[in-house]
Amino acid sequence: MELKKGTVSLIVPVYNVEKYLRRCLESIKNQTYTNLQIIMVNDGSSDNSGSICKEYADSDSRFIYIEQENKGVSGARNTALNHADGEYLCFIDADDEFTEYTVSERVKNIGKCDMIITQFSKIDEDGNIISNGSVETAAECSSQEAISFVIRVLEYGYQGYLWNKLFKTEIIKKNNIRFDEDIYYNEDRLFIIRYLLCCSSVVIKPIVSYLYRIRNISAMGALMELKKNYNAKMLTEITAFERIIDILGKDRQYDNRAYCRKIMLDISMGWIRKIYNINKEDTNKMIKTVNKQLVLYVGDLFKVTSVKHKCIIIKGIAKSLVCYIRLLVKCLFAR
After folding, report:
1. In terms of pTM, does the model score above 0.90?
2. Could you say which of 213, 245, 274 is where a domain stops?
3. pLDDT of 69-98, one tens digit each?
């Protein structure tokens, strides 16, 4: 497929979001940058989302509507990737919004780099800005430095989002980069790492180009939702980390791999806390995962290159062991 120079393909996975979808699509339609291919993939919605998408496809030729049985967000994005023919590519979640200048700012600032990472704002249910994200400093960096930026949450904040970035479609097509359809959480960061390994340089710009909607739910409500809707698919977040760790090891990025493993350990123990009273079988799986990763984390000591990171690992091992022992005791008494 020949790519259209100057065209930006926008991928919109859609699943039961009728409440927010029209605002999302309007924000795309009203872009100052008009050379767009908008691919909406209805992933088996049971609400009115499909009808809303069809309205836009019928009235604006830039909007392409695709309907499929439910495959999950990764499957929806992969379907859209197969149809993307723009020089550039970006993603938007159907309950979020673009600013008026999102695409124009990204295209203008990417230059000769292979990716641009931009700032975003968090908005409430009504579209009011709550706060900004953590992309605060402009920089141009290598792909390895960009991987550090995406991996090192404690230093740079969470940067594993798809939607605040602009990609080059040629890199995705040439290297057959796709979403793992058996991964339902953390699939975006896995995709980004694979893409960055095929890049030369990345530019970071603290320009707000995305509006990320935070839905209203209390802490108690979140707990009740987890108890009601818990699914083992949620734990594929950990599987994604395992694949990222494997990728970084093969690329000899041992410092980043060790950092990623520490995050994975923390999140795994977090899942044990959340589900030990909900699903015993999955809790035991998580315990086995932590046991394995703790041993491998010790092995990272002999691979990392800097003394600083060796010290971080030693402190991390000690902290993880203390937390883990307390957690196991808690789980034991709960049974």
Report:
1. yes
2. 213
3. 999 999 999 999 999 999 999 999 999 999
